[in-house]
Recover the amino acids of this structure.
DNA sequence: GTGTACATGTAATCCGTTACATGATTCC
DNA sequence: GGAATCATGTAACGGATTACATGTACAC
């Protein structure tokens, strides 16, 4: 059984490109630093891979010649390993980023809306609580996105990350508005009003 | 070493609950129908599993006693199999939907913004094209979300799916605005007029 | 001297997709 | 009779997570 792709190195998962993308900005960094950076900004518009996944991708990228690494300090195992993008890597990434291939549709998994969709199985109050919890969380996220943007601002090499983070800031704002609009919609669902028998108006 | 969970059947992946959720609305249906339904509405706020995944989840749900199935027609393999939720299944789903456990944050993977983030590796025109392609696609999605909403409207049992779909409609509208705002931001990126070969920038 | 952050890595496992295989039904 | 759609399923594989294992550096 011949393998379907062996030498075809153009077919990497988006995660690999995202990690290589992190390396495409000036400077060397460790897997650990990459993870923190992903947590702080990548995750707002893409997502932050598990640390073990990052290490795995780094090994793959190095195997492809897209990244290089060196130990800082003595040649011992389990010491810091600094990664950098190679010229080949930069070319491959540029081709991926600017190629004609469709970016593909955004993927959204919204556990809150999934539960609202099943609202017939829960109580209206519980639904409201959930949405409000989500609003609170989103406010936190918005703040973090703004912090990330503030950190990127003024640095010329980060012009495009700034654009992405401005998008993220607006996206979080939109998320808040969506949640509030949903709250209003929920109040209008038939059968929602009467939760307490005491609310029942006096019968004629 | 005792297994950590064996009889604990409360720990299903969201996909399983989503599939069971599809079954929680009145009527029996086949895996095939579930897939079409997921494509038409679930995917706007959650996502549509592959058909093979749906069949797998249905088998698991049946194994747990959360769903039951029957063949329509003769007892032959590969004939239509109609699934329905059981009472146990409905209870488990209701507990999941209304439980106190946090719904978890929404997960967004936006391949377009990922590439914009890497804009320093592409030409401004190409970036613009990508965004415009995304706008066109989103307009299509908006229309489909509206169609789904129209189909749900007026049916009382679908009040909550209506709320979810209204959310989706607004979400697609927000997506359009975000894309347009990003287009404006992109036009303002310094050095946008022409592309430069690599400067060697210094961080910090 | 202890706890926290830094730092790397392996193993087991599961989630989910794609590709493939099979066949029934419906419509022209 | 042929195409499209309906319909179910298996196999192989890869992507990604969690849990685990290990150790360093530094602040309090």
């Amino acid at each position: 059984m011949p393998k379907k792709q062996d030498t075809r190195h153009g077919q990497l998962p988006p995660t690999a490109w995202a990690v290589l993308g992190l390396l495409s900005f000036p400077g060397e960094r460790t897997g650990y630093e990459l993870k923190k950076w992903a947590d702080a900004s990548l995750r707002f518009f893409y997502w932050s891979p598990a640390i073990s996944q990052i290490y795995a991708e780094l090994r793959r990228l190095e195997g492809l010649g897209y990244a290089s690494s060196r130990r800082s300090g003595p040649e011992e195992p389990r010491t810091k390993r600094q990664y950098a993008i190679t010229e080949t890597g930069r070319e491959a990434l540029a081709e991926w980023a600017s190629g004609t291939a469709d970016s593909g549709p955004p993927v959204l998994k919204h556990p809150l809306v999934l539960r609202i969709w099943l609202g017939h199985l829960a109580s209206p109050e519980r639904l409201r609580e959930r949405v409000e919890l989500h609003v609170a969380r989103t406010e936190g996220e918005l703040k973090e996105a703004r912090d990330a943007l503030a950190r990127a601002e003024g640095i010329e090499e980060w012009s495009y990350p700034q654009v992405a983070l401005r998008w993220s800031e607006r996206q979080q704002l939109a998320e808040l508005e969506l949640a509030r609009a949903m709250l209003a919609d929920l109040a209008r669902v038939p059968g929602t009003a009467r939760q307490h028998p005491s609310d029942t108006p006096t019968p004629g």
About this structure: Residues 30-33, 51-52, 55-56, 77-81 of chain A lie near DNA strand C (CB under 10 Å from a C1'). Residues 111-187 of chain A form one domain.
